Amino acid sequence: MSLHLQRDMERMHREIFSMSSIVEEMIDKATLALCERNDRFAAEVIESDSQVDQREVLIEEECLKLLALHQPVAVDLRRIASVLKINNDLERIADLAVNIAQRASHINRFAEFPIPDDVPVMARMARRMVQGALDAFVHLDARGARSVIRTDRDVDALNVEIIEHLTQRMRQSPSLVAPALHCFSAVRHIERIGDHATNICEDVIYLVEGDIVRHQQFLEPRVSGASHEQTQDPHH
Amino acid sequence: MRWSLRWKSIAILVGGLAIFTILLGAIAAAELRRREVERARNLASSWSSAIADQCAAIAPGDALKAAMAGATRAGFAALPGMTVAVVDAAEQGEPRERSRTARRPEWLRVLGGSGPVAFIDGSRAPARAHHITPVVREGRVDGAVDVAVDVESAAPTWIRLAAAGSAAALGIGLVAAWRLSRLVGPLAALADGAERFASGLEFTLPVSGRCDEVGVLSDALRKSHEGRRLTTIEYQEKTDALRAVLRNMVEGVLAIGEDESVLLANEASGRMLGFAAGSAAGRPLVNIARHRPLLDLLRRCGTEAKPVRDEFEMAGESRRTLSMRAAPLAIGSLRGIMIVIHDVTDLRRLENVRREFVANVSHELKTPLAAIKAYAETLRLGALEDAEHRGAFVERIEEQAERLHALISDLLLLARVEAGREIFEFTDTPLRPIVAECLAMFATLAEHKRVTLETDTASPDIQVHVDAEGLGTILNNLVDNAVKYTPEGGVVRVAWTIRDGYAELEVLDTGIGIPSRDQPRIFERFYRAEKARSRETGGTGLGLAIVKHLVQAFGGDIHLSSEEGRGSAFRVRLPLARRDLTRRAGVGSLAER
After folding, report:
1. Mean pLDDT across chain B, nearest whole number?
2. What local confidence, expressed as pLDDT, does residue A233 receive?
3. Is the pLDDT assigned to residue B99 strictly greater than 90?
4. Is the peptide bond before B433 cis (omega within 30 degrees of 0)?
5. Would you state the CATH architecture of domain B348-416?
6. Which of A168, B116, B193, B348 fits a disulfide with B203 by CB distance 3.0 to 4.6 angstroms?
7. Could you tell me which of B290, B322, B319 has the C-alpha nearest to residue A131?
């Protein structure tokens, strides 16, 4: 790898991690805005979004520049491709956080509407998934990425449970339909955040193993055993 | 492989000696040959002239050869390696008939009258020195005498010399090698030692005390090594000390390089920011701690090039409040940023508690005062004349004053308890009478509410080492709460036992219980699970706070387990009196009976 490429790659990494720090904070604040009914946090999240948008464009340009200038191959190419996709996912997660914050400020007008107990749990799980996905990216840890992907099922299960609970409550007290609907979409957004975390994890697996695992039923390597992983990619 | 000094010097020595010997041998051989030739020449010349003289004496006309033959055979040819030939000029007829010797050109020259001729005949081995002397009779050359002497070969001598020389060279070489190895040996050991020293391995040096260069070098190396060892130890100790200080710091310390990679991170910083401090060094900060305020602070400090400060609440589950100070760092050529992190969570929480407390106290004090003021005003504005109602107003005023009094007494008590242990009089206090006294006090109230008040008669007779009055306050507050929050038909039960060297006093009720979300805060001042209800029941909101502080002042602790709708259990652990310390749970009660 040429020195220039290496330096540019390092800068690209710094940028994407800076962006992820903002996005992670946005998820936290959006979650707090929702679960603790804090309007200040909601406003902060909405404010941060433009920063994330700018950074997304910046990182994408950086990646394209790297591709055009250095024409990287093998692991460098996969890395840049992964950053491009993760960049996209992070931006979408930021948007979802903004949506959650908006829902939260709506819900906060209905003091009598209690947020279901499972919502903070689910939000925490989604947050941990994003964190786990980015940690897996930092450490090039395909195993970590796989375990994050597996937790997505739990988030989906909770999503179903909470939505059922909300539907029931709407049936019981029609006056709470409006906040319940807001809550409903907030929960859907949390679930989407989990999905994006899964996407990031799939990119990490691709980066590490050179194997596209998207849309695969079984996330384990096709033939169990480390030797297979090694033969699949001579570059690591 | 290294050409060691020893072998080099031996090779040079032996080679030199060999060349010298060969040269010497060659010179000696040449000299020997020269002498031999000289000797043969002289011999040939003297014999030749002697024989020629003899021949000259022979009467002319006699055949020279015949005359000489006998004489020669008899006297002159006795020497080994010498041949004598006599040629008669008369025989010089047809050249074809001449003997082989006589055909030689030297002969012809001599017979031709040139005088004696000497030459070396090297055409055969051994070479011979010839001397041909003319025989002059009656003025004319009548014949010639040729004496040839073998020139002895010098080769055997030469070989002997060379062999002796080589042996000598070898011998000298061996001796030199032995001497050299004594000289060079320590040098080689020194070189080995120096090599190991340079690569930081253990090494040994040749014994010091030699006064030559090897000794000096060896001593210098030893001193240098000792110096380095001491420096290393000193350095190691300093590093260890610094590391220990950093490790045990409560504050997080992070040193970040210019390229935003971690130069140093202590354990506390890892704990606060959620990364493994051990493996952090050398990695980019964004890789290990993705906290936006931290990164923002870092960049702000980088651009402003002056210390900056920030405080933020950590995202995530722990919700710690961290106060951070970043300052530019310059150590020698190293540029970077140093970040010190304080965990101010507890500080901020305490500040909050205090603020809330002041607000609560003001509120709690104002409420009864406002009521008293209102009733007094009503009375002044005419109710005083109203004989029917004024009694009730005065009663209300008394009631509110009573509440104010209770509140102030509680506040004072709390302040006293918080002040410390000095105000208490610690004595060994029997538990049973105090519990009985307390239950008796609440008997009327309990009866009124139809709540059964009972004590566990199986509980052992033990003494606790506390302030008796304080223990009374603890019990009163707990039982008061239990009775208050237990609906009709419920049970309040006081029991105690010995557990783990402490007296464990338990106040159980079958009341409404405390919701789990309120349980952590129930011991805070003025905290009420259900605000409206508890004020209705006449509490000051300080009871449990007082209980907790008293128990802590006594050196015990208090735990709550409660389930909403099922009841609560407060477990107070108190230090045992010395005489009960040795008893174990259960045993005491059996022994008493």
Report:
1. 80
2. 42
3. no
4. no
5. Orthogonal Bundle (1.10)
6. B193
7. B290
Residue A75 lies in a domain: yes
Question: Residue A163 has which token pair?
Answer: 């939505």
Whether the predicted pLDDT of B307 surpasses 90: no
Name the one residue in this structure whose structure tokens are 């947050």. Answer: A127
Helix H, strand E, coil C: the string for B224-274 is HHHHHHHHHHHHHHHHHHHHHHHHCCCCEEEEEECCCEEEEECHHHHHHHC
Q: Which CATH number fits domain B249-343: 3.40.50.970, 3.40.190.10, 2.170.120.30, 3.30.450.20?
A: 3.30.450.20
Query: Can you tell me the distance from the alpha carbon of B487 to that of B464, in angstroms, rounded to the nearest whole number?
Result: 32
- Residue pointed to by tokens 């919700």: B319
Rounded to a whole number, what is the distance in Å from the CA of A222 to chain B's nearest CA? 30
- Domain tally, chain A: 1
pLDDT value, residue B592: 41
Domains B5-156 and B420-592 alike in fold:
no
Assigned superfamily of B420-592 = Histidine kinase-like ATPase, C-terminal domain (3.30.565.10)
pLDDT-derived band at B238 (thresholds 50, 70, 90) equals very high
Strand stretches in B51-171, DSSP E: 82-88, 117-121, 128-137, 140-150
**What is the pLDDT averaged over residues B574-587?**
69
Rounded to 5 degrees, φ, ψ at B116 are -65, 145
Residue B91 confidence (pLDDT): 62
A22, A124, A138 member nearest B292 (Cβ): A22
**Structural Rg of chain A based on CA atoms:** 20
Cβ contact (<8 Å) for A10 and B284? yes
Domain that holds residue A80: 3-219
**3-state SS track over B513-581:** CCCCCCHHHCCCCCCCCCHHHHHHCCCCCCHHHHHHHHHHHCCCEEEEEEECCCEEEEEEEEEECHHHC
Give residue ranges of A with CB < 8 Å to any B CB.
10, 13-14, 17-18, 20-22, 24-25, 28-29, 124, 127, 131, 134, 138
Contact A124 B315 (CB under 8 A): no
Alpha carbon of B201: minimum distance to chain A alpha carbons (Å): 35
One-letter identity of residue B84: V
Q: Which of A18, A25, A28 sits opposite B286 (nearest CB)?
A: A18
What mean pLDDT comes out for the span A130-158? 87
Burial B392-401 (b: 16+ CB within 10 A, else e): ebeeebeebe
Per DSSP, B315 falls in state: P
Residue B166 neighbours by CB distance under 10 Å:
17
Size of interface A-B (CB pairs under 8 A): 39
Q: Is the pLDDT of residue B110 over 90?
A: no
Joined together, the tokens standing for residue B228 give 């380095």
Phi and psi for B131 in degrees, rounded to 5?
-135, 120
- What values do phi and psi take at B382, rounded to 5? 130, -20
Chain A nearest-CA residue for B295: A18
| Domain definitions of chain B by residue range | 5-156, 249-343, 348-416, 420-592
Which of A99, A121, A124 is CA-nearest to residue A183?
A99
- Domain covering B5-156, topology: Beta-Lactamase (3.30.450)
- CA separation for the pair B341, B253 (Å, rounded): 6
Other C-beta atoms within 10 Å of A105: how many? 19
Could you tell me if residue A148 is inside a domain? yes
Cβ partners under 8 Å of residue A121, min gap 6: A158
- Look at residue A228 and tell me if it is in a domain: no
A233 lies in a domain? no
Query: Which is more confidently placed, B83 or B3?
Result: B83
